[in-house]
Structures are given as structure tokens and as C-alpha cells.
Amino acid sequence: MASTTTASSLQINNDLAHKNLDDDGREKRTGTWVTASAHIITAVIGSGVLSLAWAIAQLGWIAGPAVLMTFSCITYFTSTLLADAYRAPDPVSGKRNYTYMDVVRASLGGRKVQLCGIAQYVNLVGVTIGYTITASISIVAVKKSNCFHDHGHGADCKPSNYPYMILFAVIEILLSQIPNFHKLSWLSILAAVMSFAYSLIGLGLSIAKAVGDRHEAKTTLTGAEVGPLLSSSEKVWKTFQAVGDIAFAYAFSTVLIEIQDTLKSYPPENKMMKRASLIGVSTTTLFYMLCGLIGYAAFGNDAPGNFLTGFGFYEPFWLIDFANICIAIHLIGAYQVFCQPIFGFVEKKCREKWPESKFIMTDHTINVPFCGEYYFNMFRLVWRTTYVMITTLIAMIFPFFNSFLGLIGAGSFYPLTVYFPIEMYIARAKIPKFSFTWVSLKILSWTCLVVSLVAAIGSVQGLVTELKKYQPFKTE
């Protein structure tokens, strides 16, 4: 009787365990298209939305909106191709692939896997360094705004960025102890709300300026005009840079597979991911169009690089302060979205290499008030803290890193957002060479390669200009 009871208990426990596991034996995924959309919006709508007025100013009323819509459609199309590659060989019932490298390995194999890894992780590291710089600029903008309000718009208000980079790093060290992407939903939703908040504030201030009595901004069909203040070569460089900025502003392929890996199994992950991509890209396009075009109407050809941190507006100072705080909070969440794939990759490799190490493998259970049990790991604490500290140090040494980030974006946009999704689709669907579909996809791929190359050239020119003015650890 006792043995029967024990057997029944074991069966119940096995059934419960099975219910809490997915088909690959991992903890059951609970993500939905809502959480995936929040992750995408957090990753895509960065504070770069506030610099789109500058990009439109370089291109004008015709090319500006056309480039925005073109890259919106390209990003959505290639994201649907990538979503179908999460499981292989069948997009619904095939074996799961947990990272972009796994997807490329399953579909293409060979050296392309290593090339994919280099492009993806260099881009992710670059983005986290860039976010450290941008977040500190936003917090400094709050101090500047208050200073200008108290002492006048001509006051010499130049607080140092470095204390705020350190503050940002401390916050990220704490948040980096979140074990994995699956636990990030609440942070992504908060960050997405913040991105809507500062985008709407920037939009509202632009509308107020555009319809104001003293509005004298000059706009043209072709953007900034060549003249005494802008040479023809500078016009070309800035046009290249603007096209690149818009192309890279949509890219979220570096984290798409990791986002898809958070989704529950039914409805099929690829269908939910396509829906989330459509919502994410559509929402992004709407905000980009509104902020870019109305911002251009407000500031004209002299639009600043960022009209909140660059002080396109001075008043109401409290509203600008709030918008910049929203930017900083959003970047805190976005940093985690981009660094979690790096954390996961390194920790997986270390577990595979040193499976007997207690330092790496042992989790300690800690009861956190109001949050339940937290699984603490010493290796995770040391490695992730070290990563945040190193990226912060690089941000402090190279405060012009955002110019370098444009170059990284140019180098990773083409392979990750366009080349690999298209090549994997051609391989999976066995599309014949020189068929209409094959030729169309190749033309799209080659066109995006040209865009990446010209954007890279523009970024190099901007980087050279920044290096000429470079002074390490300058505090003003």
C-alpha cells in the first residue's frame, strides 16, 4: 500500500514537473506578443528618435519620409524571415535555436556562424557602451536645464558626465543580476512606457514651436542647403550619415531570436513574433514619422542633433527635465535588453567548459521580501559586474564613442538585419538560383550593402573629426 502511494506521489510530481517544462526540457516560457512587442519597442525606440529631426533636415521633405518608410518595410520583412528560423527545419515543430548564432548554424553552417557571432556581439557591446554615454548626457541635461533656468540661456553650464556614468553603472550592476531574458518583461514594459513619454513630450514641444508666433524655421524639399555654412562635401557626408542613422534606428535583429525564445509555445512562436514585429515596427515608424517630420518643421534645416539634450528647447524647464529623466530610465531598461544575450552566451560557454566548477555551477537560494525566491550565483555576480565596469570605463575614456557606434552599426546592420535572414530563407525554401524571387532578394541584399558602406564612410569621417578634438577625461 505504501509503495503504491509512493509511486502515485512520484507520478504526480513528474506530471507537475512536466507541466512546468517546455518541449526542450527548459523552464516553461510564458511570454506573449504583448511582452515581445514591449521588448522590441524598448530595443528600437531609443533616444535616437529625438535626433530624427536632424536626419530629416539633411534629407529634406521628399527623401526623408521616403527613407523612413523604406527601412521600416525592409526591417519588418527581414524580421519575419528571421522569426521563421527560430525552429528548424520546421518553423512550428522543429528544434528550437536559442541564439542568432544557433539559427545561422542550423540553416547555413560553416564560417558564417563565426561571422554572425562577431557581428552580433560586437554590436551588442557597442550599444551598451553607447547607452552608458547617452544616459549620462540625459541626466546632465537635467542639471543644465535647471542651470539655464536659474542663470539665463547664455550661462556657462557644463557639469561633468562622469559621476552620472558611475551612477548608471551602479544601477546596471544591480539589474544585471536578473538571471535571464525571461525575467525582464516588467523592465521592458516600464522602458517602453518611458520611450512613449519622452517621445510625446518632444513631439508636443515641436508642435508648439512649429505653430508659435515667432516660428521662422526654414525647410526645403532637399534638406540643408549648400552655402557659406555648409560645403558640398559636408552636405554629402551628412546625407550619408543621416541615411545610416535611419537604417540603424530600426534594427533589432541582434536580439530578435532571444526575444522569440521567451514566447510560450502556443500559438506558434513564429506567428506571435511576426505579430509582435508588426506592432513594434509600426509603432516605431509612427513615432519616427511624427517626431522626425514635426521636429523638422519646428527647427528647419538647423535642427539640433537631439532637441531635448541638445537644447532645442529651454522652457518649460520642468517638462524638459522630466523628459530627460524618462530617457535615462528607458536606457536603463534598454541596456539590459542588449546585454542579456552577451551574459547568456558567456555563461553558457563557461558552464560547458567547466561543468565541475562550483563557483560557476552552484546557485544559492535567497528569499527576497515581496519577490519570493531568488537564485544567486557567484560567477554571475562577478562576471556581470566586471562587464558593466569595463563598458563604463570605455564610455568614460571615449565619450565620443557614439560616433564609433555609427561605424559599428554600419558593420552589423547589413549582415544581421538583411544578409543572414535572406540567405537562410533562400537555403530553407530551396529557392532556385536566378529565379524571380532569388533575384529580387539578392537586389534587396545588395542595395542594403551599399547603404551600409556609404553610412560607414560617413561615420569614419565623423570619427576623424571627433578624434581631432579628443581630450581624455575632459570634465567640461
Textual characterization of the structure:
The protein is mainly alpha-helical and 476 residues long. It has 15 helices and four strands. A hairpin with a 3-residue loop joins β3 and β4. α3 packs parallel to α14, α7 runs antiparallel to α11 and α8 packs across α14. It is globular and about 65 Å long. This is Amino acid transporter transmembrane domain-containing protein.
Q: Helix coverage percent of residues?
A: 55-70%
Count of strand segments:
4
Number of helical runs? 15
For the terminal residues, how far apart are their CA atoms?
A: 80 Å
What characteristic shape results from the CA principal axes? globular
**Low-confidence segments:** none
Regarding quaternary structure, what we see is: single chain
Q: Which structural category fits the helices and strands? A: mainly alpha
Would you list the SSEs in sequence order as H and E? HHHEEHHHHHHHHHEEHHH
Largest sheet: 2 strands, antiparallel
Strand content: under 5%
Q: Give, in spatial order, the strands making up the sheet with the most strands.
A: 1-2
The whole-angstrom Rg is 24 Å
Whole-number mean pLDDT: 85
